[in-house]
Each structure stands twice: as structure tokens, then as C-alpha cells.
Amino acid sequence: MSYPMPGPASEVPSDDEQVPSVEPAPQAQAPDADAPRPLGVPRAATGHAEVDAQLERLADVDHLATDGHLEVYEDVHAGLRDTLTALDTRQGPPVPGGVPARPYDHRS
After folding, report:
1. How many CB atoms lie within 10 A of CB 103?
2. Taking the CB of residue 83, how many other CB atoms lie within 10 A of it?
3. Which is nearest to 86 in space by CA: 54, 59, 58, 42?
């Protein structure tokens, strides 16, 4: 009489033991050709908070269809224009008389 030898070939996992299942790996989906794709254009910080915020706003176009770009570009342009206008505005108290004197106006 021959009895089966215990060992890996004759052992059957019990209900308590977990057997790893072999599932096929999910296939990567091909990107939609019509979907927006980031341009990958690097943006360097300028050190001016208002300008940097506007430049960061440009990243929004990476996730929009082309017809949505114009609104972002116009918004950024207006923001940069407002920032530059604020830099041109004279800071401090107004000049007496309304017009600053030029140094050569007071020659003898």
C-alpha cells in the first residue's frame, strides 16, 4: 500500500489560508487625442507677488480646451496691466502746485 507523501505537491490550502489571486494588470488607456495636454512651458518666479500670481494663472490653460484659453490670457493681461499701472502711480504726498519743479527752472 502506498500513501501520498506530505509535501508541497500534495498540500491543499485550507479555507483559512489566503491564496494570492492572479489578476491581469489593468491596461493603460490611451490618452484622448482631443483632450487638452499641458504645454510644459516653465514659469520662473519674478519675486513680485502680484506678477507671480498672474503667471501662475497661466497654468490654467493646460487643463482647458483651446477655446477657453482666450479668457485666461485676457484675465492675465489685465492683471499685469493693472500691476504695471500701480507701479507707475506716484507714491507719497502730492506735489505742491500740482507740477514738480525741474532743477533747471530755477537758474539765475
Report:
1. 6
2. 15
3. 54
- pTM for the predicted model, two decimal places: 0.49
Query: Which residues lie closer than 8 Å to 92 by C-beta, 6 or more apart?
Result: none
Check: CB of residue 56 under 8 Å from CB of residue 43. yes
C-alpha cell, 10 = 500534495
**What pLDDT digit, counting tens, does each position of 31-40 carry?**
666 666 777 7
Task: Pull the grid cell for residue 13.
Answer: 490550502
Distance CA 81, CA 77 (A): 6
Which grid cell is 11? 498540500
Burial status of residue 52 (CB atoms within 10 A of its CB: 0-12, 13-18, 19 or more): middle
The pLDDT of 53-59, averaged and rounded, is: 90
- What lies within 8 Å, CB to CB, of 55 at 6+ separation is 43, 45, 46, 76
Q: What are the residue ranges of helices labelled H in the chain? A: 49-57, 69-88
| Rounded Cα–Cα distance for residues 62 and 39 (Å) | 7
